[in-house]
Amino acid sequence: MSKGAHLISFQVLRGLGESLGRFSSKALEGLGGIQAETRRRVDVLEKRHAYYTEELHYLRRAYEDADDDEEDDREAILHKMEEVEEDLREVQYWMRQVEECLVQYMRHARAVHDIATTRTPKATHFLHRKLSELYAYINTQADAPSGGSGGRYSAGSSAVSTGSAHTAAYNDFRQQHRDGNVRFMPAREVYVNEGDIMSPEHTDAEWDQRQANFWTHHGNTFEGYNEMADKFRLIQSHLAKGKTLDELRLDESMRPAIEFWWSKSEPVKLYKYKGSYWVDSGFHRVTLAKNHHLGAIPAMVTEAELKKS
User: Fold this and answer.
1) Could you identify which of 67, 91, 176, 192 might form a hypothetical disulfide with 181, taking C-beta atoms 3.0 to 4.6 angstroms apart as the criterion?
2) Comparing C-alpha atoms, which of 38, 77, 96, 61 is closest to residue 244?
3) What gap in Å lies between CA 121 and CA 114, rounded to an integer?
């Protein structure tokens, strides 16, 4: 197989990995949007139900308190009661319809959530591992004596060395940024597959988890970080069942992990360029997610693009 064939084949596989990551992010983003809109609609119905119930209670008291000689007033109140009762029945009907739809939706949403947070990350991790093995194999073959020119494939050649998918994008970004060719889009909150994030130690050796004080950097412990990983999976399972983060925050056992992963003041911050991500803030959380293969994690992402000439 030619070097060009190697490159095209691996580009297709890397493209598949990026597509899987985008699917997870978009699926979770879509589920979150649907959940928020559904909650809003349910809130509207509940408020209307409460309003009509209170109005009906008020009219019944007014009807009972009306004097017998005020027949016109009693008839007007009775007519208004009938109207409110009809409005209340309609609201109750739609509440039942929404509840039935939610039951069906949640069954499918749980399946999509499982695919996005469990199965797709596993597939992506498997794909990345196999790509690394293929890169290593090609380098081994390139070193072996042959009738061709031989030599190890380098980052500057037509093939790609082990782990270079994110590294190449990162190095290209740095060069383009130095040359003033990059513009930054507004940051947005999304879910990003940990397999699509460059390992922190590859951008800054200070954030290598093999450093003696890496897991105690903020006064935490290795065990404490691992507990946050376990709680992340637990929180995700509750979210898949229709719970919200605000509801889960009421549980004191959940609150620390929610603040850890979904922090508003100190979120995980990532840069994105050409389908690759690297860490600006949240090095420990990203390393933890990669160690435990947590799949898609919440992050604030600033995407970099090349300026149009």
Assistant:
1) 176
2) 38
3) 10
Number of Cβ within 10 Å of residue 244's Cβ equals: 13
Can you give the pLDDT at residue 243? 83
Q: Assess whether pLDDT exceeds 80 at residue 169.
A: yes
Partners of 137 in the β-ladder: none
**How does 15-42 read in b/e, with b if 16+ C-beta sit within 10 Å?**
eebbebbebbbebbbebbeebeebeeee
Which residues share a beta bridge with 299?
A: 190
According to DSSP, the β-strands at 269-273 and 296-306 are: parallel
Q: In this predicted structure, what is the pLDDT of residue 148?
A: 38
Backbone angles phi, psi at 298, to 5 degrees: -75, 140
User: What average pLDDT does the structure give for the chain?
Assistant: 80
User: Which uninterrupted H or E stretch holds 278?
Assistant: strand 276-281
Spell out the residues 6+ positions from residue 132 whose beta carbon is closer than 8 angstroms to its own: 162, 163
Q: What is the DSSP string of 173-214?
A: HHHHHHTT-EEEPPPEEEEEEGGGBPPGGGT-GGG-TTSTTG
Secondary structure of residue 306 in the 3-state scheme: strand
Residue 210's φ and ψ, nearest 5 degrees, are -80, -10
Rounded to the nearest angstrom, the gap between the alpha carbon of residue 59 and the centroid of all alpha carbons in its chain is 49
- CA distance linking residue 8 with residue 10, whole number of Å: 5
Supply the DSSP string of 96-146, one letter for each residue. HHHHHHHHHHHHHHHHHHHIIIIIHHHHHHHHHHHHHHHHHHHHHHHHS--
For 275: left if phi > 0, alpha if psi spans -120 to 50, otherwise beta; the answer is: left
